[in-house]
Amino acid sequence: MPLPADKKRLLYNKAREIREKIVWVTEKCGGSHIGGAMSQTDLLVSLYYNRLRINPKDYKWEDRDRFILSKGHGGVGHAVILGDLGFFPEKDLADFNKTGSPFGMHLDYLKVPGVDASTGSLGHGLSIAIGMALGACLQGFQWRTYCLLGDGECNEGTIWEAAMSASHYKIYNMTTIVDRNKFMIDGPTESVMGLEPFAKKWEAFGWRVIEIDGHDLDQIDDAFDAVEAEKTKPTVIIANTIKGKGVDFMEDQAKWHYAGLDSEMSKKAIEAIRKKYPLV
Ligand SMILES: Cc1ncc(C[n+]2csc(CCOP(=O)(O)OP(=O)(O)O)c2C)c(N)n1
How far is the CA of 257 from the centre of ligand 1 (A)? Predict the structure, then answer.
């Protein structure tokens, strides 16, 4: 079902704002994993502004939903959203990844309010999410666990060990998403370490697969609903995205996996975002 028009407008404008803030923080801190932060933005905005039951004023609320950014290098985009929601003063992001700042490039759950697990070493978030989901189930809690993986991250064997155990334990109170931007740190995923047939691999591990355009807010929302309605097995959403999405000169290029922006480039990036996403 399409999102209500006012909700869709809110999410669309918010995603544009988050992309601009990622550019701002990247300029300030001298460099970030901006390509993957841009590809994940519509997914995270859909989660944080329309799905997760969380409370920025009480970030340890026991009944909150949990979110694990398994592709921990996307922390810059996660931090910008948490700051925007008021988990901490947004101005603190001016010191992102600087000595003495609570924000490292990979977020630390002991230092950043709103972060449920420290990630950065790829391949571990899905196992953490499964532990949380299983824990919720065994203790009768209703909250849900959400986990975002990178596609390059799926080269890690631990992802597939976790996938096996999730289907063994029939974990359906968890929503797993793969940011399938088809690029990793040093090139296209299919030339570094081929993942295809990707959907079939998940199916072979006992998962239901839903494939979507990971920048289409209606499709994202529908997929979240469908996963929550599934009561027999784990589901993965393969979200087809574009690395660097929103900044034309960054899109689909591995060189923007990690990069810095001087003030000139930063201005160009903001202009590109505003052109691509006129306010509605
Ligand atoms: C265990 C481990 N090995 C290597 C790295 C270095 N590394 C950081 S990002 C990255 C590529 C990840 O690609 P992908 O998951 O596709 O991320 P995205 O394109 O969404 O940014 C790698 C290999 C790491 N963080 N952890």
Answer: 9
User: How far is it, in rounded angstroms, from Cα 26 to Cα 22?
Assistant: 6
- The answer to whether the beta carbons of residues 225 and 217 sit under 8 Å apart is no
State the chain's mean pLDDT as an integer.
98
Whether 244 is in the pocket of ligand 1, judged by its Cβ within 6 Å, is: no
Q: How confident is the model at residue 158 (pLDDT cuts 50, 70, 90)?
A: very high
**pLDDT score at 280:** 93
| Alpha helices by DSSP H, 230-262 | none
Domain range for residue 244? 5-276
Type of residue found at 128: I
Mean pLDDT over residues 248-263, rounded? 97
Mutational pocket test of ligand 1: of 41, 68, 78, 122, the residue with most ligand atoms within 8 Å of the beta carbon: 122
Quick count: other Cβ atoms within 10 Å of Cβ 51?
19
Give yes or no for residue 42 CB within 6 A of ligand 1: no
- Residue 190 has a CB neighbour count (10 Å cut-off) of 13
The per-residue pLDDT for 194 is: 97
Residue 215's pLDDT is 98
**How many domains is the chain partitioned into structurally?**
1
Please tell me the distance between residue 141's alpha carbon and the centre of ligand 1 in angstroms.
32
Q: Is the CB of 33 under 6 A from ligand 1?
A: yes
Whole-number Å distance between alpha carbons of 52 and 194: 33
Confidence of residue 8 (pLDDT cuts 50, 70, 90): very high
Beta strand spans in the chain (E): 66-69, 145-150, 174-180, 183-184, 187-188, 208-213, 235-240
> CA–CA separation, 252 vs 35, rounded Å?
8
CATH assignment of the domain containing 237: 3.40.50.970
CA of 102 to the centre of ligand 1 (A): 22
